[in-house]
Amino acid sequence: DWLALKPQEPSPSQCCGSGCKPCIYDVYEKELAQWERAKAKQDKSLLMEKKEQSSNSELNPDTFTGFNIISVEQLTEDTYQYKFELPGNSSLQLSLGQHIVLRGVVNGLEVQRAYTPISPGNAEGYFEVLMKHGELLMLASGTGLAPMLPILQSITDDEEDETFVTLVGCFCTFDKIYLKPLLKDLAGYWNIRIFYILSQETSLEKLPWSYQENTYTGRLNEDLMKTIVNSCRRRPFVLICGSSAFNEDMSRYLKAAGIEENSCFVF
């Protein structure tokens, strides 16, 4: 029971690198110390302190405070305005240009980003921020993976880039997957997910368990394409790179999944 309650140490990809106070690592150290005290005394009620703090409407630079989302308004194709509720008629009382750090869970990873509220500093009962959520779907066959990597790395290297990316890599067998260590590292980022399609593998049982969940055997067909497209948060812009036959098949499958030609780019 105590191991299940132990805070999980963040991975490097979960830190935005902006010098936030508190940093996600600061919060982890504080929560770990709180867990260790509670475990030493065998008193789980001591773990409830942070929940009691979350009811406080005043922001605290040493901890996170929970707020409810009142509404989400889409302003452009990839920009959204989030409105958060403040208890009663309280206000953030921030200085001009001062930012706040928002923390949440995305794709099972706890991430945090700094935002400057767009609502007036003395707004009562709420505050608002703008968030940009782009979406890319990359379809690569074999060495068609090559042009996708610089794009992926440019996204992960830019702490302000919040583009969600789904990479689908199509290979003959597990052994033929290129650059496994690099791909594994990229998949650790909160906004990157990677699927593998192995055309000549008949079973996933011999694959490492960490690959089995996001790997499919056989070929990428129309039904699987619809499943992948529908799993995206919004209609993605699609990048395609492979053989001529692969590119033609992907374009046809994407059209059947509701993706128009002007939302695709073929290398």
UniProtKB/TrEMBL annotation:
Domain Oxidoreductase FAD/NAD(P)-binding stretches: 138-250
Highest taxon, organism lineage: Eukaryota
Domain Oxidoreductase-like: 6-41
Record keyword Flavoprotein present: yes
This protein's UniProt keywords: FAD, Flavoprotein, Oxidoreductase
Keyword rRNA-binding attributed: no
Start and end residues of each Flavoprotein pyridine nucleotide cytochrome reductase-like FAD-binding domain: 68-133
Cofactor(s) the protein requires to work: FAD
Listed GO MF terms: oxidoreductase activity
InterPro entries: CBR-like, Cbr1-like_FAD-bd_dom, FNR_nucleotide-bd, Oxidoreductase-like_N, OxRdtase_FAD/NAD-bd, Riboflavin_synthase-like_b-brl
Binding sites annotated in the UniProt record for FAD: 113, 115, 130, 132
Protein name: NADH-cytochrome b5 reductase-like
Organism the protein comes from: Cariama cristata
Lineage: Eukaryota, Metazoa, Chordata, Craniata, Vertebrata
